[in-house]
Design goal:
This protein is mainly alpha-helical and 115 residues long. Helix content is 54%, strand content 0%. The protein has 5 helices and no strands.
C-alpha cells in the first residue's frame, strides 16, 4: 500500500512539474511566417544562439531550460546570466562567447521577442 501511494505521489509531482514547464509556442507553423533577421548582428546572434543556447532553450521556448523569449528581464540581466550562469545554467567564458557575440545574442532575443 505504501508503495502504491509513493508511486502516486511521484506521478502527481511529475504532472505538476511538466504542466508548469509549458510555454506558449512562437514558431513559423502557427504564425505562417518565418523569422527574417533585420541586420547582420541579429543574424550572427541567431547563429551563436543556435550553436550555444538552442539545445536547452529551443527557439527561446522552454526545453531543458526555461522559456527566455517570454522572460521580462532586461537584456543586460540576460547577458550577465549568460556570462556568469545561474543555477543549473552554465556561464560562458569570453573564449566561448565573445562580448560582441553576447550582445548579438541579446539583439537576436529582442528581435525574436518582437517577432
Amino acid at each position: 500500500m505504501a508503495k502504491v501511494s509513493a508511486i502516486t505521489g511521484v506521478c502527481c509531482i511529475l504532472v505538476i512539474l511538466l504542466s508548469g514547464a509549458c510555454a506558449s509556442r512562437r514558431s513559423e507553423i502557427i504564425k505562417q511566417k518565418t523569422f527574417d533577421p533585420a541586420s547582420a548582428r541579429i543574424a550572427n546572434g541567431e547563429k551563436v544562439f543556435m550553436e550555444k543556447c538552442h539545445k536547452c532553450h529551443p527557439a527561446g521556448e522552454a526545453g531543458l531550460g526555461p522559456a527566455i523569449s517570454s522572460n521580462p528581464a532586461p537584456q543586460f540581466v540576460k547577458r550577465f546570466q549568460m556570462r556568469h550562469g545561474l543555477g543549473v545554467m552554465p556561464g560562458f567564458k569570453k573564449e566561448e562567447i565573445s562580448r560582441k557575440d553576447l550582445r548579438d545574442i541579446s539583439k537576436y532575443l529582442h528581435a525574436w521577442k518582437s517577432y
